[in-house]
Write a structure and sequence with these properties.
Strand order of the largest sheet: 1-2-3-5-4
Structural class: alpha+beta
Radius of gyration: 18 Å
Strand content: 15-25%
Order of helices and strands: EEEHEEH
Distance between the termini: 75 Å
Number of strands: 5
Number of helices: 2
Amino acid sequence: MPNLEHVFTHKNLDCAIVNNETHRCGYVGVPKDHPLHGKNYNDVLEDYDISVHGGLTYSSSETSEEYPIYKKDIWWFGYDCAHYNDNLEICTLDFCIQECKNLANNLDEIAVNQRQQKLKNIKPTTTLTHTL
């Protein structure tokens, strides 16, 4: 039975580590206004350079026994430590916390870059003139 092992916030994003008894998985949730909210992790990997252990392997807003974190309008991206040579001794809780932070940094950077790009594309609607 999966165990919600650690929950924290990084870059104002919810993060969670789940221990599945044989391996850990890490998740970072993005809010509804994030540009990747609702996107499939495979599409995200095609369009963005996401750096996390083993790559992204999960995206959803679903919750269940395996994914016991529910927050309204949060879309979760996750990775797992169930790859060749992964085990609980190698992929420690501290390791997984750092990987969640790395993922949160990536997701935050994507949101910041998108906001900056939108601001650059805003055209003034009126011209201000100043007379002396």
